[in-house]
Design goal:
The chain is an alpha/beta fold and 326 residues long. The protein is 37% helix and 13% strand. The radius of gyration is 20 Å and the shape is globular. The chain starts with 5 loop residues before the first helix and ends with a helix.
């Protein structure tokens, strides 16, 4: 599967946690020539199961080897056209949708990382088969809270690629509406480099290695997540595990993660003033931030642990192998 996204991170975790699970990654630019993908993603051994994302899974299928596909996101529907380039719109509506349908036809099992994403697959592609929801899991031994020292400046973290899909274009407009003691620090995400407009209360901290992300969350007071579409919301779940309140968009899978008023606030899509107001409210109340952060940590421990995710995938793989008689 292609490197440089949250889905790859999850499959890396599976590879490190399940004996016999191997991940074969490739540069995303290889998707420009899909017929070449079997060559760059080829394995020296014959697998018992192939587990892939749906976009190009069809190219990796092998005769008599069960194919499992996991939808980590869904961007092929009409709503996402506004947030895609012309080339992406053409690509999504033509060959990528075709490849995804072919993967669904050949898959023996289909999973999704949220109920929202599963519903999108059923609605937009008309898929009638079962889709098992397996939420992504967070390593709570790595992503954990720590005592925060009082400081004059409240730090709001944005973690993600600097795209309109992630809501990065909203950051300067939100920043201009924040109280003086609040700054937004933002990363470059996994793929895209560059900076946003230079404002006194916005600070670019570059591309952070995934191994350093727990410290990055712990160094913040609030997570800002103004995304347009999330299959799951990995950054939000990681921040929750680190005891942060989250101010996010009320869209897609995020209400499955964030409980409005208890673990943070869900704001209207693109509502810059609402995002700013909620951040200002949290910045003014350390007790509320602490209470929401504790709630989020407990929620992750209850519903979104790494152990639970790994066990559910193991159970699925074992079931598929048993049915296939391997």
């Amino acid at each position: 599967m292609a490197r440089g996204n949250g889905a790859y991170v999850i499959h890396e975790i599976l590879a490190n946690s399940i004996p016999g699970y191997h991940i074969h990654g490739y540069n995303p630019y290889w998707t420009l020539v899909p017929p070449a993908l079997p060559l760059v993603g080829n394995s020296d051994t014959t697998p018992d199961i192939i587990h892939s994302t749906p976009d190009y899974a069809w190219f990796f299928k092998k005769k008599d080897i069960p194919l499992i596909i996991t939808f980590h996101n869904y961007v092929l529907d009409g709503f996402m056209r506004e947030y895609s380039s012309l080339a992406q719109r053409i690509h999504y509506a033509s060959d990528l949708k075709f490849f995804t349908r072919k993967a669904l036809q050949h898959a023996v099992a289909v999973t999704s990382v949220s109920r929202f994403t599963a519903d999108m697959v059923r609605r937009d592609l008309g898929f009638k088969g079962p889709i098992r929801v397996i939420y992504n899991g967070i390593d709570t031994d790595r992503f954990y809270p720590q005592q925060r020292t009082a400081r004059k400046t409240i730090r709001v973290l944005f973690s993600g690629n600097l795209t309109r899909r992630k809501g990065a274009d909203l950051l300067p407009r939100i920043a201009r509406r924040l109280d003086r003691n609040i700054e937004i620090v933002y990363t470059s995400g996994l793929r895209i480099s560059g900076k946003l407009p230079n404002l006194p209360n916005m600070r670019h901290i570059g591309s952070i290695p995934y191994s350093k992300m727990p410290d990055t969350y712990r160094d913040a007071d609030i997570l800002l997540f103004p995304t347009v579409r999330e299959g799951f919301g990995l950054a939000a779940a990681e921040a929750m595990a680190c005891g942060l309140p989250v101010v996010a968009t009320d869209c897609s899978s995020l209400p499955e993660l964030i409980v409005h008023g208890k673990g943070g606030f869900l704001c209207g899509l693109g509502n810059v003033q609402e995002f700013a107001d909620r951040i200002n409210t949290l910045a003014a109340s350390p007790d509320v931030r602490k209470k929401m952060g504790e709630y989020n940590r407990a929620r992750v421990e209850q519903k979104f642990t790494l152990e639970r995710m790994i066990n559910e995938y193991k159970e699925l793989f074992e079931k598929v192998l048993s049915t296939a008689g391997v």
